[in-house]
Amino acid sequence: MSTPDVDHPLQPGERVPNIVLDAISRDGKISLDDFRGHSPLLIGLFRGLHCPFCRRYVAAMAQLNPALREKGVQSLAVVNTPVERARLYFRYHPIRDLLAASDPVRASHRAFGLPIVEFTEHETDWPHKLGMDVVTTLRVDRPGELPEPMNPYDAGELLIKKDGYEIMEADQQVSLAGRMQLVGHFLLDREGVVRWSFTEVEDAGGNVCRALNPDELMSAASEIGH
To answer: Which domain of life is it from (predicted)?
Structure first.
């Protein structure tokens, strides 16, 4: 089933469409309507698992999942990686009790209004184009993993070397040469209405490859849980 594309990241107060995806962490399908009327949902829409930052976003969701469940909030991580490749990855990097789904065609990202940004040499028209001259001024801070705050490109290269992730054909199929899918988290209430979000679109690019603030998420979850 097709879903309408929107030209901006969904904002608090906007209702999300139903999306049906292949489940990674179990057999079958996962749809947003599975949660509607039953429980609030934190949905993380990420790039493929070839992205070192997104591997960490998924792991962070898994760590937050128990605390969210105590507040009555379910979690769903969506990656662009094809389902069989994703299942292979999670076989060796388990995400206990965290639902995950595959969306290699990025239908969910379009439905939630997350655009693809094109990297250019000097032209910036956020969030559709981003000059590499601007990228070099951005900073990502991951204490314990990066020696210091670094620009997203250099930080990604260092994390790729550190992880030793093997790029397979399935990863290449969903990688975007010279472009990057922007990602984000959306907290939905029981009726599928956005109540809180954190996306790379915000802050004119300053959020690119940055992790969300767990305290802000938990505060929002406390207001809609149970």
So the answer is: Bacteria
